[in-house]
Amino acid sequence: MKVKEVVAVVQSVVAGNHGRYAVAISNDIEGSITFSLRKDVWREKEDPEPGTYVVLLELRKKRKGWRAYKARFFGLENSLEKARETIDEKTF
């Protein structure tokens, strides 16, 4: 089964040499996941804060961990989608 998206929790936001980025962890992936806060990666108007749930897509394994090339906030629509999937799985 191909993983399409990963839900993670932001641990920190860092100002790096190539711009600002966030570091997150997920129960689904071993190690940390980083993602840039550039507009082509981070799809939101506001930056995430530590403790914020995010949805990460297009993950690639790098030498120092994982990197997501698309990211957005985890919102109510995600919770509703997950609930529907659970109901569908139990029905069939």
What spatial order of strands do you see in the largest sheet? 1-2-3-5-4
How would you sum up the global shape? globular
Number of strands: 5
Q: What is the first-to-last residue Cα distance? A: 18 Å
Mean pLDDT: 86
- In DSSP terms (H or I, runs of 4 or more residues), the helix count works out at 1
Could you tell me the strand content as a percent range? Answer: over 45%
Radius of gyration over C-alpha positions, nearest whole angstrom: 14 Å
Q: What order do the SSEs take from the amino end to the carboxyl end, as H and E?
A: EEEEEH
- The percentage helix is 10-25%
Low-confidence stretches at least 5 residues in length (pLDDT < 50)? none
Give the structural class: alpha+beta
* Largest sheet properties: 5 strands, mixed, barrel
What can you tell me about this protein's structure?
This protein has 92 residues and is of the alpha+beta class. It has one helix spanning 76-91; strands spanning 5-16, 19-26, 29-36, 53-62, 65-73. It is globular. The mean pLDDT is 86.
Keywords:
1 helix, 92 residues, single chain, alpha+beta, five-stranded mixed β-barrel
SSE blueprint and pairings:
Layout: E1 5-16, E2 19-26, E3 29-36, E4 53-62, E5 65-73, H1 76-91
Parallel strand pairs: 3-5
Antiparallel strand pairs: 1-2, 1-4, 2-3, 4-5
